[in-house]
Specification:
By secondary structure, the chain is α/β, with parallel strands linked by helices. It is 33% helix and 14% strand. It contains 14 helices and 14 strands. It has helices at 2-10, 64-68, 99-112, 125-136, 158-175, 180-190, 194-203, 217-224, 263-268, 299-315, 363-371, 400-407, 413-416, 419-433, and strands at 15-18, 36-41, 49-53, 79-84, 118-123, 141-147, 204-207, 210-213, 244-250, 280-283, 334-335, 348-349, 393-394, 438-439. The strands form 4 sheets. Strands 1-2-4-3-5-6-9-10 form an 8-stranded mixed beta sheet, sandwiched between helices. The chain has a two-stranded antiparallel sheet with strand order 7-8. A two-stranded antiparallel sheet has the order 11-12. Helix 3 (99-112) packs across helix 4, helix 5 packs antiparallel against helix 6 (180-190) and helix 5 (158-175) crosses helix 8 (217-224). The longest helix has 18 residues, at 158-175. The radius of gyration is 26 Å and the shape is globular.
C-alpha cells in the first residue's frame, strides 16, 4: 500500500498541444519561414517559458519522454516549447542555415505566440543556435541552457566528420531517387551509429517518384561541405552572452572535450568564470557513443539531470548576475557605474526584476489597483535628476519633516558628510529593505 501510494502521489498529468501537424513549406523569403513545435503546459498558472531546440536533423518530439517523465519537475516552473528550427522537423525550409537568420525565425515565433521573455535551451547544434539567438536578443532571454553543445568549433571533431558522412548518404539517396526499401537498407548498412541511424529513419517519408526526408537534406548537405559550415563553426562575430547560463556535457563526451573545449565557454559566457562543477559541469559516466544524448541516459542520470535543470531554472535563471540567486532579489544593493564612496550609497541600486511577459500581462495594472498607487506609463520617463511632485510620494510612519529631508534634491555636501546624514541614509536603506515605503511616480517598487 505504501508503494502504491507513493506511485500515485508522484503521478502528474502533462498537457501537450502539438503544433507540428502539416508539411514543411519551402520559402524563398527568409522572413516568411514559419516554425512549428509542441507546447507543454506547465503545472501552474502564469509560468515563464522555456524554448528547447534539438540536435541537427533530430525531431524535437524526441524530447517528450524527458519532459513527460513523472519525476521531472521542470514543468513545475516553466511552460515548455519544443521547437523545430528551419530545415528540420516540420518547420519550413530555406536554403540558408545562417545562425542570424535562424535566430530571427525564433524571435518571430516568440512574437506570434506572445512570449515576451523566455529561457532558451539547446542540444548539440541546437545549443549553438540557442547561444547566438540569446546574444542577438539580450532583452528577450533570461538565461541560456546548453546540453552537449555551445560555442565550440566542431569542424574537425571526429563525431562531426562522421555526421557529415551520414548526411552525404542521405543526400545521395535523394539524388538517386531511391525507393523506400532501398533507402532503409542503405541507412541500415552505411550509418553504423545507432542513434543517428534512428534519427535519419525518423526523417524518411514517401516522396513523389521515390523517398524524401522531412528535414531539408539538400540544404544541410551543402552547408556541411563548406569551409566554414554554419552547423559546425563558431565565429567571433557572434559575440558574448553576459547573462545567466548553465552548460552540461557528458563526462566522456566526444563533442565537448573537458580538457580543451570548455575554454571557449569561459570566453563567450563571462558568468561561467570560477563556476566549473556548478553551472558548467560534466554529467554521468557513460562511455558509449550514445552519451551525446544525455537526456536519454539511464533513469538515474536522467533524474539527476532534470533536477539540476529544475533547480537552476528556479533559483538562477533570470536573477541579476550580481546576485547569488533569486533569494537575494529585493534584499541587496549592487554597485552601479558612477559609484561614489563619499556619497554613502549613491550609485547603488536594487536590480529590477520584471514579469516574464511584461508586454502582455495585466499583473502590473492589477497590482496598482490593489495597492491604490500610481505608476509610470509605458515609455514615460522623467529627465535625469528630476523627481515627481512631493504630494505623489507615499511614506509609512515617517514624519513629514524627515520625509522632506530624505528626498530633497537640494541636499548640501555638508549635510551628506555629517553623521546625521549617515543616520538618515541608513534609516532609508532599512525602510527600502523591508518595503515599508513606495514612490508613486514615476517608479514604483514591488
Amino acid at each position: 500500500l505504501k508503494k502504491a501510494f507513493q506511485k500515485t502521489s508522484f503521478s502528474k498529468v502533462v498537457s501537450v498541444r502539438s503544433f507540428s501537424i502539416g508539411t514543411p513549406i519551402f520559402q524563398k523569403d527568409s522572413s516568411k519561414v514559419q516554425l512549428r513545435g509542441t507546447f507543454l503546459k506547465g503545472r501552474k498558472a502564469d509560468l515563464p517559458t522555456l524554448v528547447v531546440l534539438p540536435e541537427i536533423l533530430e525531431p524535437v518530439g524526441n524530447f517528450l519522454p524527458f519532459f513527460k517523465h513523472p519525476d521531472n519537475k521542470i514543468l513545475d516552473v516553466r511552460n515548455v516549447w519544443l521547437l523545430d528550427y528551419r530545415n528540420c522537423g516540420n518547420s519550413d525550409h530555406h536554403p540558408s542555415l545562417d545562425l542570424h537568420d535562424m535566430s530571427e525565425d525564433i524571435i518571430r515565433f516568440m512574437n506570434e505566440k506572445k512570449v515576451t521573455m523566455a529561457t532558451i535551451a539547446g542540444h548539440g547544434f541546437g545549443a549553438k543556435l540557442a547561444t547566438v539567438t540569446a546574444i542577438n536578443n539580450l532583452e528577450r532571454f533570461t538565461g541560456v541552457l546548453l546540453l552537449e553543445g555551445g560555442p565550440v568549433d566542431h569542424r574537425y571533431h571526429e563525431p562531426f566528420l562522421q555526421l557529415k558522412n551520414y548526411i552525404k548518404v542521405a543526400y545521395d539517396l535523394i539524388k538517386n531517387n531511391a525507393s523506400s526499401q532501398k533507402a532503409n537498407k542503405e541507412i541500415q548498412n552505411q550509418i553504423p551509429h545507432k542513434k543517428w541511424r534512428k534519427v535519419f529513419q525518423q526523417n524518411l517519408i514517401e516522396g513523389i517518384g521515390g523517398i524524401a526526408f522531412r528535414a531539408n537534406i539538400e540544404a544541410i548537405y551543402k552547408d556541411s561541405v563548406k569551409v566554414f559550415p554554419d552547423i559546425a563553426s563558431w565565429h567571433e562575430k557572434y559575440g558574448l552572452w553576459p547573462g545567466r547560463v548553465m552548460a552540461c556535457f557528458a563526462l566522456y563526451s566526444d563533442w565537448i572535450l573537458m580538457g580543451s573545449n570548455t575554454i571557449p565557454f569561459y570566453s563567450i559566457f563571462p558568468h561561467l568564470q570560477y563556476e566549473f562543477s556548478r553551472d558548467l559541469y560534466p554529467h554521468g559516466d557513460d562511455k558509449s557513443e550514445l552519451n551525446h544524448w544525455i537526456h536519454e541516459g539511464t533513469p538515474e542520470d536522467v533524474f539527476y539531470l532534470s533536477n539540476r535543470i529544475y533547480r537552476w531554472l528556479r533559483w538562477q535563471d533570470g536573477a541579476n548576475v550580481h546576485l547569488s540567486d533569486k533569494s537575494e532579489a529585493g534584499w541587496y544593493y549592487v554597485p552601479d557605474r558612477g559609484f561614489d564612496p563619499q556619497r554613502q550609497g549613491v550609485g547603488e541600486y536594487i536590480p529590477e526584476h520584471v514579469h516574464h511577459d511584461y508586454l502582455h500581462t495585466t499583473a502590473y495594472d492589477e497590482s496598482r489597483l490593489r495597492r491604490g498607487v500610481r505608476g509610470a506609463d509605458k515609455g514615460q520617463f522623467l529627465p535625469s535628476g528630476k523627481f515627481s511632485k512631493e504630494e505623489l510620494w507615499q511614506l509609512v510612519n515617517i514624519p513629514v519633516k524627515l520625509e522632506k529631508i530624505l528626498f530633497s534634491s537640494f541636499l548640501t555636501q555638508e549635510l551628506l558628510n555629517s553623521s546625521i546624514s549617515n543616520f538618515l541614509m541608513h534609516f532609508l536603506d532599512l525602510k527600502r529593505t523591508f518595503h515599508i515605503f513606495s514612490r508613486k511616480q514615476p517608479i514604483e517598487f514591488f
